[in-house]
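Title: Comparing notes on inverse folding

I've been comparing how different people in this forum approach sequence design from structure. To keep things fair, I'm posting one structure and asking everyone to reply with a full sequence. Here's the target:
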């Protein structure tokens, strides 16, 4: 269903994104080893990734790093190893065929379709080497890390180093990394730092943008038609204006409206309400770290767009803060994608969030 409020997994449920899908498929076919799928939250990265993996003829495994991190509060090698192995366990054919290579990996045991880590000898690198050997005949193995910026919390496990080794040496592997927090992802990967393992490595970036107003309207029309729910063109236009081409909000609006049989305004209000609780969860870590983040977001949402004006607003609300600490907080919001900086001005790129923070 086009409006289903979960990441899509099948081509039929994904509206458009044909070019991006083709771009990913072509890059894998060409043998590119590192693909980044970038874009704000709710633009459909996970959906596109799922569909791409399901359409590709290649064997593939995926780990949702954000979910893993929130579940285990860590992404050390045992945790990520466990997720990789369980993703493999869910793919019978892959596991069956890769078994003979996996047997050589120290510290894991395979029984039936269960693969487990059994000792401290386990290393991610060895696991990747085994998958690379498997890929030699089976075809390039695609390994996807959704919301890969969370790999920076690996502690002693340095995923940037592991990735660099794999990209340089394991020619039958392709990594696809997605990231909503694009600044944080690049901080972690450090392609421009001569001291960093991934310095200068080639990466193919696929950037997801929001839907144009025409495409947004088309998406809503198609979704409502599929749900056999009658709406007017005026309502469509209004929703397109309010939700500004962000597929996640458009789908949520359509879903809420069609399933709960709501009027247009009620549905928009429900989207705002749901969005508010999603944001609370998403930002809880940041807000726990400093209450100033919330006030900065509010200031920007209210229209303060210059560094100095935002700082003055924050000072007025919460008292003195020095310049460099303020800059750090603001920079973190930019790196995590909640705020955008353009020509010396700061703004919140997501209109739904802007409305929520303004309150
Ligand atoms: P991201 O991973 O970028 O945060 P998701 O893939 O989770 O985004 O998508 C957010 C929501 O929007 C999901 O409910 C998903 O079903 C919907 N969605 C995103 N892109 C599309 C699309 N192209 N067609 C239909 N629904 C989409
Ligand atoms: Mg996602």
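Reply #1:
Here's my take.
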């Amino acid at each position: 269903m086009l409006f289903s409020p979960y990441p899509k997994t099948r081509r039929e449920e994904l509206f458009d994104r044909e070019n991006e899908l083709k771009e990913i498929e072509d890059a894998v076919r060409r043998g590119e080893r590192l693909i980044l799928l970038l874009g704000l939250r709710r633009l459909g990265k996970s959906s596109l990734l799922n569909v791409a993996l399901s359409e590709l003829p290649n064997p593939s495994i995926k780990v949702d790093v954000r979910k893993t991190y929130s579940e285990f509060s860590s992404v050390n090698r045992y945790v990520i190893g466990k997720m990789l192995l369980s993703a493999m366990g869910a793919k019978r054919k892959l596991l069956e065929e890769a078994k003979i290579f996996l047997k050589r990996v120290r510290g894991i045991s395979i029984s039936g379709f269960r693969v487990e880590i059994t000792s401290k000898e386990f290393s991610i690198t060895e696991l990747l080497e085994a998958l690379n050997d498997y890929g030699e005949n089976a075809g390039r193995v695609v390994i996807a890390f959704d919301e890969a910026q969370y790999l920076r919390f690996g502690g002693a496990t340095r995923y940037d180093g592991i990735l660099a080794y794999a990209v340089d040496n394991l020619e039958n592997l392709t990594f696809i990394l997605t990231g909503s927090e694009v600044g944080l992802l690049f901080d972690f990967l450090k392609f421009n730092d001569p001291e960093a393992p991934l310095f200068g490595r080639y990466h193919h970036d696929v950037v997801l943008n929001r839907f144009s107003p025409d495409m947004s309207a088309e998406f809503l029309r198609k979704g409502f038609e599929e749900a056999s729910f009658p709406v007017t063109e005026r309502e469509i236009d209004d929703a397109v204006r309010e939700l500004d081409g962000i597929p996640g909000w458009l789908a949520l609006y359509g879903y809420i409206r069609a399933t709960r049989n709501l009027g247009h305004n009620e549905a928009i209000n429900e989207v705002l309400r749901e969005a508010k609780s999603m944001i609370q969860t998403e930002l809880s870590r940041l807000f726990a770290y400093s209450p100033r983040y919330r006030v900065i977001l509010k200031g920007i949402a209210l229209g303060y767009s210059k560094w100095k004006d935002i700082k003055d607003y924050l000072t007025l609300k919460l008292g003195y803060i020095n310049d460099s600490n303020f800059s750090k907080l603001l920079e973190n919001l930019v790196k995590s994608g909640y705020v955008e900086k353009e020509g010396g001005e700061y703004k919140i790129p997501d209109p739904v969030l802007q409305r929520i923070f303004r309150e």
